Prior knowledge:
Blueprint lengths: L3 E5 L5 E6 L13 E5 L2 E5 L14 E6 L5 E7 L11 E4 L2 E4 L7 E6 L2 E7 L18 H8 L4 E9 L3 E8 L2 E8 L4 E7 L10 E3 L2 E6 L1 H6 L4 H9 L4 H5 L8 E6 L6
Amino acid sequence: xxxxxxxxxxxxxxxxxxxxxxxxxxxxxxxxxxxxxxxxxxxxxxxxxxxxxxxxxxxxxxxxxxxxxxxxxxxxxxxxxxxxxxxxxxxxxxxxxxxxxxxxxxxxxxxxxxxxxxxxxxxxxxxxxxxxxxxxxxxxxxxxxxxxxxxxxxxxxxxxxxxxxxxxxxxxxxxxxxxxxxxxxxxxxxxxxxxxxxxxxxxxxxxxxxxxxxxxxxxxxxxxxxxxxxxxxxxxxxxxxxxxxxxxxxxxxxxxxxxx
Length: 260
């Protein structure tokens, strides 16, 4: 049901449900992801179900107050948007928003406002062409610029010392690790055989990867997994015990601590 908010406690016990009106004279919202923060709710709607926006009622994200009123819209929609598995990631007392296609600026939610905090400079490979204000040519435009431009930083994750994101260039994907201390970025290519492929979250100054048990089982005989076992013999028995119905396996990646 796209017109309800259901609340459960940390133990999974149901607390209440609230009916919402996502269609008003001012806004038209199709909920995709929800963030509970700062006394209200941020809802990512994206471009789901949108074919035009002539009356400017469609925004990619909305803010709903604690008394369940659709209050603000952010990022007016001018073309189709790529989806993201996790649009919001927490860091300290704020939430970073995974940017949309063609946008190299990282926006953050601070209290009930959205502010720009970082700009990812791809240099001469940055996407400088304007994305057409249409809804039918998005995939064609993306294919056209993919070979010559770096774009779509995703999985943006932040710690006190590090910033991580992945991006695409020339039909290949890369991981980028930026050291706030060294003011330097380390980039590595993601090969089809690479496992795991990217970062999901953070914990303290460590980066977190969530891996589906299926991926561990399917990659148990890969060359990369064999080399991983050599360096981490203590984990081999744990990998062998992973079953198809287990919860995701959490990898904690301890990052190097540079001196300032």
